[in-house]
Amino acid sequence: MADYTEDIRLAHLLADSADAITEERFRAQDLKIETKPDHTEVTDADRSVEKTIRSMISSTRPRDAVHGEEFEDTGYGPRRWIIDPIDGTANFVRGVPVWATLIGLEVEGEMKVGLVSAPMLGKRWWAGEGLGAWTGRSLMKAERIHVSGISSLSDAFVSYSSLHGWISSGRGQGFVDVLRDAGRTRAFGDFWSYMLVAEGVVDIACEPELSLHDMAALDVIVREAGGRFTSIDGEDGPFGPGALATNGMLHREMLDRLRPTS
């Protein structure tokens, strides 16, 4: 098995640079905000972070490809970095401190490294294949994390993002039934739901509509924490449609409950 320790170290350096940009621009009076064709928001901070990360990867891993949310893909080959400069831009724009930079490394079609940096929460989460999943402020101040042991939906804690996508997906009734039958539900949303699964705080996280850059870094962190990460149709990996992350024991039941009914 390949050792991805050095790639994890690089991911932390990339996150250091990203955090410096996002912390300075968060709640800035002159923050520039635009609406993209898909009706989502983008800020000057999103673009600055992605440009900086791309430049650093070009210098340190010139043979690696890069896929990001805001700019065209670059490079080709078996190794590809997948970047979401600010996951939770809507929160960022509105001054809600729940957003993060997501950095993932895909090798030959599988996610091998993932890092999530949420500076306003004072935390990072990261993992490398075979190296476990961790959380903390830095590599030197970290603790290993693991998913929960909850096996019954009636005892489970479910986190999600919003109801809108579920209604239009044809899976709305199944999702509502899950919320009704679960022991506890909260809409933490975005990256945080999945990192709480990895920590064992939440048992299930799911969303019906996500892009690769939203999911890539999360996938390996959940798996290395002992959980399972698939599409809502049950396909392994961060390739959609949507995402379902669980502690593993609840996964089959959730897939059955979320099957489309129309």
UniProtKB/TrEMBL annotation:
GO molecular function annotations of the record: histidinol-phosphatase activity; inositol monophosphate 1-phosphatase activity; metal ion binding
Organism superkingdom: Bacteria
Entry EC no(s): 3.1.3.15
Pathway listed: Amino-acid biosynthesis; L-histidine biosynthesis; L-histidine from 5-phospho-alpha-D-ribose 1-diphosphate: step 8/9
Cofactor dependence: Mg(2+)
Pfam assignment, any one: Inositol_P
InterPro entries attached to this UniProt entry: Inositol_monoP_metal-BS, Inositol_monophosphatase-like
Chain sites annotated for binding Mg(2+): 69, 84, 86-87, 214
Catalytic reactions on record: L-histidinol phosphate + H2O = L-histidinol + phosphate
Keywords: Hydrolase, Magnesium, Metal-binding
Keyword Transcription regulation: no
GO biological process entries: inositol metabolic process; signal transduction
Function according to Swiss-Prot or TrEMBL: Catalyzes the dephosphorylation of histidinol-phosphate to histidinol, the direct precursor of histidine.
Protein name as it appears in the record: Histidinol-phosphatase
Lineage: Bacteria, Bacillati, Actinomycetota, Actinomycetes, Propionibacteriales
